Automatic annotation (TrEMBL), chain B:
GO CC field: plasma membrane
Location(s) in or outside the cell: Cell membrane
Topological relation to the membrane, as annotated: Multi-pass membrane protein
Name of the featured protein: Nucleoside ABC transporter membrane protein
Automatic annotation (TrEMBL), chain C:
Membrane topology field: Peripheral membrane protein
UniProt keyword Hydrolase present: no
The protein's name in its UniProt record: Nucleoside ABC transporter ATP-binding protein
Domain ABC transporter: start-end pairs: 6-241, 258-505
A GO CC annotation given for this chain: plasma membrane
Automatic annotation (TrEMBL), chain D:
Pfam families: BPD_transp_2
Compartmental location: Cell membrane
GO cellular component entries: plasma membrane
PANTHER family named in the record: ABC TRANSPORTER, PERMEASE PROTEIN, GUANOSINE ABC TRANSPORTER PERMEASE PROTEIN NUPP
Recorded topology in the membrane: Multi-pass membrane protein
CDD domains for the chain: TM_PBP1_transp_TpRbsC_like
Protein name, per record: Nucleoside ABC transporter membrane protein
Membrane-spanning intervals of the chain: 12-33, 53-75, 87-104, 110-128, 140-160, 200-220, 241-264, 276-295, 302-323, 329-348
Length: 311, 322, 530, 364
């Protein structure tokens, strides 16, 4: 019986944690199995939940969010027979029973940045992040590089919703930020802001501009008004881990980028009319180049700064 | 900064000031009657949830509004019970109500909608849509007046106009009617009202209930006009800012308007780091920007309010027999 | 015989464990003035508040003009034609006179017509009863006497024909009191019924037709005024014969202890309350300061006691006191040998929630003798408190009881014990016997005199002329922030002091104090104001 | 004469209020379709029937003791410190600086240093609102609320821009050096045969919290400063009469209050996570209010109430682990406890007083 531990943002954040939940749900639906789950309410519960699930015989124990890296690292040794998975985290040495799964968000963001720049009529594109943490700057940085690649003169307007975890869940502010960006000329906004993005997409639709969703495919939320979504397949990662079960391979680091289809851009019936063939071709070309290594998208982490935008 | 940008900034200000204004006026009625209320936040939050939930399930934003007002009145009733009938500590009661609203809204939302403490997105008649005032389109090209009218004055949901209309109405009620006279008296010296043969309890309850109605409007505005649905903690401290504005306004209706507009402007500026950079010439840290409304609140309270004399009987339960 | 205007039958009222009224019956004939006397806490105010619907009686019946009447709230009392002027006024301080008058008696939902009507009626009433007040003045800017007029006007405006006045003269000068009595006379002639609560036997004898005496919640007697005497009433009040005079030797004043020169005090509203006064107090004498409440005496005490700032010079034993700076607080004053029994013991002199023993060191709590290392020597303090309480006859002598659980007189004894036992050079003492029964008054007066006889300087402030006259070795009268003059107690009388208290004087020097005022105002401006 | 015996006031009333709150909470649990009895059992099992459960309960209780004492000290001076949350955040910053930048030879010394750091930073964050209240009349309730928001932004700035180790994406400091790691209950109480408190975060800080309870008791009831604080709290006019400076007492009591709130972060930051993370305070500042109220602002009461809330917290975590009850249930229970013990206590007291009065009359 696998277990899934959500980060403090909560299970239904409409993006990251929720994607993990969907993956688990899909596994449950397909196999008829059951899984344990918990939404944390405090930092101290991270270790507690890991231990309690491990003691209860759950295997694997999957955690979402980089904040779990440290607790997983310290707990793993006590439960050698349990497999632990952490999504988004990083640790210097990965214990034998731990598997880390990371995503190349900047690559996916690069592609949607290109799409934004290509469909922008005003020459200004917007980015709205959730809480101001490096991970979100990482998203924004890829996006800016993509946009600049298409149009070096493009103006990028970026805002972070806030500095506390409440920023993941503040659609009011998301909405106002969208309006503010519109008044600065933006006609496309990319929301990498969890639940806050709901407000961004809503306002963009209300005000007649296009938006870009994140993590899950959010194109359907406002059909014809969402340019595309930068998908981050947390659901696949969770689903695969659960499928592998106790037999899963551990002790290493899985990176899911464009090549692995861990990140990408969404094209479906909701946004097909918005994506011209040229745009599609250009993006697919860039995608191939990134996969082949001909094109390098700089990660914000490399030296905590972004070549295309000054956060 | 050009004129249009300024108008857009002010437009945002108006949108963001509206919930503050409604909550501030709500607090004004309550505190003028001698009942301090730091539970504005909680009442707004509960009203936001219930208005969104009912608007969603009935498809009518007006029914949603009623539900929002209803739950806010229930919480007001609890506050009244604690602070009028049982002469409890008003600050603590307000705090408890805010916590209660924070927990209950999510609990109920999860139970009803299973979307992690939010309501589904509202559409169509389940939302307050912006109203275009008469002649807005025709006047649009007239220099200065046109854009001012079109961008700033026209195009808000009905609740914004109600909120602004409430300012003169409140002034009139407080200073021109019998009810207002008694309300102010009961906040200054309840014994004077009591010996004049008027019920202190009834007056205070009615003030607290008016406060409930206005918080209900504020909450409904957040969830069904400013936004299209409820998410947890969506008031995000607005109740407290409204209280600070109330002190800044020295418990007067017109001042309350200016104070909430000022705080609205702070919040609007937070969204426009580009403008700040343009005006002051340096890039401001995001964290500083986020904390700006709160810092300015402290600065204003410390520096400019001077001696804001609250209603003299404020915060104290009326005790006849010890 | 007509039905009585008021008839109360078997009224009882308890406040928690305190039985304030026990089975009280009383009847008042229309067109008469009925006096009620009794010691503090006897239950007079409670009884009348029940009649006015402010409190609800636990038991008993009320008849108005012969009809049994339920008075659940003041609305009902007003409807029954009853008006009441409370001991503590029930006015909204930052409302105008007019607004206060119409509060609760408005004509309709809108204020404008009500205000207009009240303005007309008011000028009418003012003329008829000599009750002039500016209808647009804010209450907080009116003198106490004028505030009382507003209260009376409120009742008349509501067309009360039964008027209850609870200790109306406590805040008035003798002349103002006389004027009030003329008004009451006038109302009686018109057929109105008046109930007058007072402690002052003189007033009872002067104006009432009948008088009731209350003691410890019970009605002990009702008599015709013409058939009784002050001595008899005093005995009914206290339950034993009372010695109304204080025995004391004449003073033998020594060196000057306190010198005050040109003292001015501005309160927090920016009003000049003490307008340049000079006085001295010598060792072994009591200087009494007489005056109607609110004429600057309280502020004088506050500055001397160190909890308000002042301007001017004050010297203790020849050394200058700091009036505004770091050393102007109560601690520094105590260090200089000044002890202070404040006017309001419940709000200032005591912490009501503290035990008696904690209160016996209040203000002196930093004294090293009360410390043991970094902790307080609670055991030692308690033992000392026990001894002090016994010496001062505090009842019950239990140091661990909270101050709020002692009666007013015993609370005052705790404060006195604390301040007198410090053996100060100068004792400031305000309203030493306010709210204290006659037995305790005797004891307190003895303590003050014996402190004087030990050669200490005493500055006594009291609104009770009798007390001033019987205790003081010298009397200064304050009016409107000035000292109107000094008298020796054996060379003056209540009448002369009463005139001084009202600001009437024959001495030209003090008469043109207005000029002095202006000078000080100018000086204050130069100093940068308040 | 008192209307009611003292014991009724301090024991009976909180107890009845608590029972009322519990009953309402049970109704809430019923309403969301779960069984209150099962829920309660699960909470007791998870929080009190295993040593590790106790290890969590006491860990949370440690936090609540600090914040509860902080609120209680301010209450004694009649101030309502809603800013415990922000003060604790700043305290965490203090701990982080002390632990990261000073090479400590031994944890005991580091603990002393970190306590000072936490207390100083927490006090700093409380002294500004206190000063503004005393000198400028800015209402401390509003300013401390604002300071909570400002603290969050400040902490974020430090964690994202200053203290975050390179390449880490977590807005958190690096892990503190080995020498600053505090002994946990497991280290202290396990024997060779049995491991006690396995994995639980309770650590030596618990004893510091208990010591703080004792010290605060001495401070409030046995020192001249405590005497002045209480006097000021009961009556400002009387305090002025006695020469007690309102400014001094306002500032000092808030400094103590802020220092206590700040020290909470030793437990979370140094004791548990061994690094400073963004939301290590987790609302403990607000729970401190409930704890102080329940404990009637008495350190012993605070101690008991903190353990009660620790139990609620740990029990609530167990509920979240094994059932579908959302975590907000615990918030609701807390709110109900605050409402009944803090704001509606007269609802219990008034009838109770009548009963006692009737009994006394019966005796007489
Ligand atoms: N509101 C109240 N709550 C509790 N006890 C009260 C209240 N009012 C009066 N008492 C108590 O009732 C008793 C009677 O008080 P009351 O005010 O009627 O006395 P009084 O005769 O008017 O005295 P005074 O001459 O001081 O005005 C006193 O023991 C007093 O402490
Ligand atoms: N408000 C009150 N609350 C509780 N108890 C009170 C209150 N007022 C008075 N008491 C109690 O009632 C008793 C009588 O108080 P009261 O002030 O009426 O005494 P008194 O007869 O006026 O005596 P004294 O002349 O010494 O002032 C006191 O022992 C006191 O404990
Ligand atoms: Mg009285
Ligand atoms: Mg008395």
């Amino acid at each position: 019986e696998p277990a899934l531990i959500f980060d403090l943002g909560g299970k239904f954040d409409k993006s990251f944690n929720e994607a993990a939940f969907r993956g688990a749900q899909r596994w449950a639906d397909e196999t008829g199995g059951k899984f344990l789950e918990i939404e944390l309410q405090s930092e101290a519960q991270r270790e507690q939940a890991l231990r309690r699930f491990a003691e209860a015989g759950a295997n694997p124990v999957i955690t979402t969010g980089f904040a779990f890296a440290t607790p997983v690292e310290s707990v793993a040794g006590d439960y050698p027979d349990t497999k632990f998975v952490n999504i988004d985290g990083w640790m210097p040495e990965v214990p034998a029973n731990v598997q880390l799964i990371g995503f190349q968000e900047h690559q996916g963001s690069y592609l949607v940045g290109m799409l934004a720049a290509m469909s922008s009529k005003t020459g200004t594109v917007g980015f709205i992040g959730g809480m101001d943490i490096p991970l979100i700057r990482h998203f924004g940085c890829g996006y800016a590089q993509g946009a600049k690649a298409v149009n070096p003169d493009i103006k990028i307007v970026a805002n972070m919703t806030g500095t506390t975890p409440a920023a993941w869940n503040d659609p009011v502010k998301g909405s106002e930020l969208t309006k503010a960006q519109i008044s600065q000329g933006a006609d496309i906004v990319y929301a990498a802001a969890g639940g806050t993005g709901v407000g961004v997409l809503q306002t963009a639709a209300d005000e007649g501009i296009l938006s870009i969703g994140v993590d899950s495919n959010q194109n359907h939320l406002h059909s014809g008004k969402v340019l595309t979504s930068m998908t981050k397949r947390v659901d696949v990662a969770v689903y695969n881990s659960m499928m592998a079960g106790a037999e899963m391979e551990t002790g290493g680091f899985t990176t899911l980028g464009l090549a692995e289809e861990g990140v990408g851009w969404a094209l479906d019936e909701h946004n097909a009319p918005l994506i011209s063939d040229d745009m599609k071709a250009a993006v697919e070309d860039a995608r191939a180049k990134i996969i082949s290594g001909d094109l390098e998208v700089v990660a914000y982490y490399t030296n905590d700064s972004c070549p295309a935008y000054d956060f | 900064m050009d004129f249009l940008t300024l108008l857009q900034l002010l437009d945002t200000t108006v949108r963001l000031a509206t919930p503050l204004l409604l909550a501030c006026l709500a607090g004004l009625y309550s505190e003028r009657a001698g009942i301090f209320d730091i539970g504005l936040e909680g009442k707004m939050l509960a009203a936001a949830f219930f208005s969104a939930a009912f608007a969603y399930s009935t498809g009518s934003v007006w029914l949603g509004l009623l539900a929002g007002i209803g739950v806010s009145l229930v919480l007001s009733g609890i506050h009244g019970l604690a602070s009028i009938t049982f002469r409890g500590n008003q600050l603590i009661s307000g705090l408890a109500i805010t916590m209660l609203a924070g927990g209950m809204t999510v609990l109920i939302a999860q139970d009803w909608f299973k979307q992690g403490g939010r309501t589904p997105q509202l559409e169509g008649a389940a939302r307050f849509e912006p109203i275009t005032l008469p002649f807005a389109e025709t006047l649009r090209e007239v220099p200065f007046i046109g854009p001012l009218y079109y961008e700033l004055i026209s195009g808000h949901p009905i609740l914004v106009y109600i909120a602004f209309a409430l300012v003169p109405l409140t002034w009139w009620i407080l200073f021109r009617t019998r009810f207002g006279l008694r309300l102010r008296a009961v906040g200054e010296n309840p014994a004077s009202v009591d010996t004049a043969g008027v019920s202190v309890v009834a007056l205070r309850y009615s003030a607290v209930m008016i406060c409930g109605v206005l918080c209900g409007l504020a909450g409904a505005y957040l969830a069904t006009a400013l936004q299209a649905g409820f998410v947890k903690d969506m008031t995000a401290g607005r109740g407290y800012i409204a209280l600070a504005a109330l002190i800044f306004a020295k418990w007067r209706p017109w001042y309350a308007l200016w104070a909430t507009l000022l705080f609205g402007l702070f919040q609007a500026l937070e969204l426009r780091p580009d403008l700040i950079q343009q005006v002051i010439g340096v890039k401001v840290q995001v964290q500083l920007l986020g904390a700006l409304p709160y810092i300015l609140t402290v600065v204003i309270l410390a520096g400019f309010v001077g001696k804001a004399i609250p209603p003299r009987a404020g915060g104290e339960p009326y005790v006849k027999e010890r | 015989m007509t039905a009585p205007a008021i008839e109360l039958k078997g009224i009882s009222k308890a406040f928690g464990p305190v039985q304030a009224n026990k089975d009280i019956s009383i009847s008042v004939q229309p067109g008469t003035i009925h006096g009620i006397i009794g010691e503090n806490g006897a239950g007079k105010s409670t009884l009348m508040s029940i009649l006015y619907g402010f409190y609800k009686a636990d038991k008993g019946e009320i008849f108005i003009k012969g009809d049994k009447t339920q008075i659940p709230d003041s609305q009902a009392a007003i409807a029954a034609g009853i008006g009441m002027v409370f001991q503590h006024f029930k006015l909204v301080e930052n409302f105008t006179v007019l607004e206060n008058i119409i509060l609760g008696a408005e004509e309709g939902r809108l204020l404008r017509p009500s205000l207009a009507k009240a303005r007309r009626t008011l000028s009418h009433l003012a003329e008829e009863y000599e009750l002039n007040v500016d209808p647009d003045a804010l209450i907080e800017n009116l003198s106490v006497g004028h505030q009382q007029r507003v209260e009376i006007l409120k009742a008349l405006y509501r067309q009360a024909d039964i008027l209850i006045l609870d200790e109306p003269t406590g805040v008035l000068t003798p002349a103002e009191a006389d004027q009030l009595f003329r008004i009451l006379d006038r109302l009686r002639e018109e057929g109105k019924t008046i109930v007058l609560i007072t402690h002052k036997l003189r007033e009872i004898m002067e104006i009432t037709d009948t008088v009731s005496v209350m003691r410890r919640g019970e009605m002990t007697a009702t008599v015709k005024t013409s058939e009784t005497s002050p001595e008899h009433l005093a005995e009914l009040m206290v339950g034993r014969k009372v010695l109304l005079r204080v025995d004391k030797k004449s003073a033998s004043p020594g060196d000057v202890v306190l010198e005050v020169e040109g003292l001015r005090v501005i309160d927090d509203k920016g009003v000049l309350r003490v307008k340049g006064i000079d006085l001295t107090v010598r060792a072994g004498e009591i200087l009494g300061i007489a005056g109607v409440a609110g004429n600057g005496q309280s502020e004088l005490l506050e500055v001397l006691g160190g909890f308000a700032d002042g301007k001017g010079n004050i010297r203790i034993n020849g050394e200058e006191l700091d009036l505004t700076g770091k050393y102007s607080d109560g601690q520094s004053r105590r260090a200089r040998g000044i002890a202070h029994v404040p006017e309001d013991r419940q709000r200032e002199g005591l912490i009501m929630e503290y035990t008696a023993w904690e209160n016996t060191i209040f203000g002196y709590h930093l004294d090293p003798t009360y410390q043991k290392g970094i902790l307080m020597d609670n055991v030692g303090i308690q033992a000392e408190a026990q001894a002090k309480m016994e010496r001062f006859d505090v009842r019950p002598p239990h140091p661990k009881l909270a101050a709020k659980n002692f009666s007013g007189g015993n609370q005052q004894k705790i404060v006195l014990a604390r301040e007198i036992e410090r053996n100060p050079d100068l004792l400031l003492i305000g309203q030493p016997t306010r709210g204290v029964d006659i037995g305790a008054i005797e004891f307190i007066h003895q303590q003050i005199i014996s402190l004087r006889d030990q050669g200490k300087a005493i500055l006594l402030v009291s609104v009770e002329l009798e007390e001033i006259l019987s205790l003081s070795d010298r009397i200064a009268v304050m009016f409107d922030g000035h000292i109107m003059g000094e008298r020796m107690p054996d060379q003056t009388d209540e009448k002369e002091l009463g005139l001084l208290m009202a600001g009437v004087t024959q001495e030209p020097a003090a008469a043109d104090y207005k000029v002095v005022d202006q000078q000080f105002a100018l000086q204050d401006q130069e100093l940068g104001g308040a | 004469m008192e209307k009611m015996p003292h014991w009724a006031d301090i024991v009976l009333i909180p107890l009845i209020s608590l029972i009322l709150a519990a009953m309402l909470s049970a109704l809430v649990i019923l309403a969301i379709g779960e069984s209150p009895v099962d829920a309660f059992n699960l909470m007791v099992q998870g929080a009190l029937m295993r040593s590790a459960g106790w290890g969590y309960t006491l860990y949370y209780a440690t936090n609540f003791m600090f914040t509860g004492l902080a609120v209680a000290v301010a209450f004694h001076a009649r101030m309502f410190n809603i800013g415990g949350e922000g003060q604790a955040m700043l305290g965490g910053l203090g701990v982080a600086y002390v632990c990261l930048f000073i090479p400590w030879p031994h944890w005991s010394l580091a603990l002393i240093g970190a306590s000072l750091g936490a207390a100083m930073f927490g006090a700093l964050w409380a002294v500004i609102p206190a000063y503004l209240q005393a000198k400028r009349g800015s209402h401390i309730v509003i300013t401390t609320i604002m300071f909570n928001f400002i603290a969050a932004a400040l902490l974020n700035y430090f964690l994202v821009n200053v203290l975050r180790p390179p390449r880490s994406m977590d807005p958190a400091t690096a892990t503190f050096p080995e020498a600053t790691h505090l002994p946990s209950f497991r280290d202290m109480f396990s024997t060779a045969e049995t491991i006690m408190f396995r994995g639980a975060p309770a650590n030596v800080t618990f004893f510091i919290a208990v010591a703080a309870c004792v010290l605060v008791w001495f401070l409030i009831w046995r020192t001249k400063l405590g005497y002045e604080i209480r006097a000021f709290g009961h009556s400002e006019t009387a305090a002025k009469y006695a020469g007690i400076s309102p400014v001094k007492i306002t500032v000092i009591s808030m400094v103590i209050s802020g220092a206590l709130a700040g020290m909470m972060s030793i437990n979370t930051t140094m004791g548990e996570s061994e690094r400073l993370v963004l939301n290590s305070t987790e609302g403990a500042g607000f729970i401190g209010i409930a704890v102080a109220l329940m404990g009637r602002s008495h350190p012993f009461g605070v101690f008991l109430a903190a353990i009660l809330f620790g139990f609620l917290y740990q029990g609530g975590a167990e509920l979240a682990l094994w059932t579908n009850i959302p975590r907000e249930l615990i918030v609701v229970i807390q709110a109900l406890v605050i409402l009944f013990t803090g704001a509606l206590d007269n609802m219990v007291r008034m009838p109770l007083e009548k009963i006692f009065l009737a009994f006394r009359k019966g005796d007489a």
